Amino acid sequence: MIDIDPASSVPPYEQLRAGIVAAVSTGVLAAGHRLPTVRRLAEDIGVAPGTVARAYRELEASGIVETRGRNGTYVSFSDDPAREQAQRAAAVFADQMRTLRIDTADALALAASALKA
Question: Is the entire prediction scored with pTM above 0.90?
Fold first, then answer.
């Protein structure tokens, strides 16, 4: 969760943008991760939807996130084509594991076993 300090001289959209950039750079938000909708995030952090929309637009302009129309906003993949493919494959794998209700530890063990084969 990103906290917005209303007393800060930094505008709320910039605090949000910087918080998402920090979460991406530290790996808290991985490539392919879907971000909350504008309305949902605005409600969660107590700001106007326009504030979140502006932060998302700025993040998209800098290539950190990508908007897929009605499908939502996602953390972008890297500029390295091989790594991008690997990240996309990992995102698909993670989605499948969630659908199958396989917990994280078991999913990672399955992936490790497959990589060793």
Answer: no
